[in-house]
Amino acid sequence: MSLLRIEGLTAGYGHSQVLFDISLAVAEGEVITLLGRNGMGKSTTLKCLTGLHRASGGTIRFNGQDVTRWPAYRIGRAGMGLVPEGRHVFPNLTVRENLVATAADRGRAARPWTLERVYALFPRLQERASQMAGKLSGGEQQMLVVSRALMTNPKLLVLDEATEGLAPLIRAEIWNCLRTLKSEGLAMIVVDKNIKPLLALAERHYVVEKGKLPWQGTSADLEAAPEIIERYLGV
Questions:
Q1: Is the pLDDT of residue 1 over 80?
Q2: Does the pLDDT value for residue 233 go beyond 70?
Q3: Which of these, 134, 107, 103, lies nearest to 116 by C-alpha position?
Q4: How confident is the model at residue 86 (pLDDT cuts 50, 70, 90)?
Q5: Residue 23: which of 54, 55, 60 has the closest Cα?
Q6: What's the CA gap between 31 and 65, in Å, rounded?
Q7: With contact defined as beta carbons under 8 Å apart, do 35 and 190 qualify?
Q8: What does R_g of the chain's alpha carbons equal in angstroms?
Q9: Residue 115 CB contacts under 8 Å (≥ 6 apart), including other chains
């Protein structure tokens, strides 16, 4: 049974349709990606499934429930955690306050995410615990946003460009974090432009092109089809 299943999703802004019949699924503990150039509909897909944008058609089922028309806060409470593009921290709260502000364990996880676990994952956050989040570096803010999502103890973690604009060392730290989360069985949807680490991290990939899904397959399938990368992902 799928943890998340999207069928026939359509969406747009005003009179402009952006998504056309998007269908995909994520199993328990599975990692998938949405791949494609900028402006192809990846972020709109994520906004629809997290309740930040209303779909105009299709269905979104999460953890056995139809959440298509649910508001974002209710989808979050159901167990979907979002790491949005752009590092949206609460700048006037400390690092610790950012982490505990939305913390919850509604699903009664066997090993819930706590401050101690987050600090073990990103020791730098413990060093900055009393610092205002707005004063952190960009990389530290990204660590904080990932950790804040984990503190909600999600069943599915959705990451939109989590390594964009980061220094190589910080980017490597984020990828190490995602590999750790995968090894612990956390399901994830990842949008990112760095193909090589995605191939190692995810089981399956969906290519988004002009609001449609022209290709999907496993990491082995994508590695064996360099023409797909060139056609849909090349600059």
A1: no
A2: yes
A3: 103
A4: confident
A5: 60
A6: 20
A7: no
A8: 17
A9: 96, 99, 100, 151
CA dihedral (110, 79, 191, 205) in degrees, to 10, reads 70
pLDDT band at 87 (very low <50, low <70, confident <90, very high): confident
Contact indicator for 11, 52 with CB cutoff of 8 Å: no
pTM of the entire predicted model: 0.95
Structure tokens that stand for 175 in this block:
């990828």
Residue 44's nearest CA partner among 80, 85, 79, 7 is 85
Note every long-range contact of 161-166, with CB atoms under 8 Å and residues 24 or more positions apart, other chains counting.
Answer: 161/85, 161/191, 161/192, 161/193, 162/83, 162/190, 162/192, 163/192, 163/194, 164/85, 164/192, 164/193, 165/138, 166/138, 166/139, 166/142
Q: What is the pLDDT of residue 120?
A: 96
- Yes or no: say if 147 and 125 are a contact pair by the CB < 8 Å rule: yes
Residue 12 structure tokens: 């747009």
Sign of CA dihedral 197, 4, 120, 84: positive
The torsion angle over the Cα atoms of residues 64, 69, 74 and 77, rounded to 10 degrees, is: 30
> Can you read off the two tokens belonging to residue 158?
């959705």
Q: Please, are residues 195 and 229 in contact by the beta-carbon 8 Å criterion?
A: yes
- Report residue 55 as tokens: 């779909």
- In 36-96 the beta strands, taken as DSSP E runs, fall at 57-62, 65-66, 80-83
CA atoms of 186 and 102, how far apart (whole Å): 19
3-state secondary structure 154-200: CCEEEEECCCCCCCHHHHHHHHHHHHHHHHCCCEEEEECCCHHHHHH
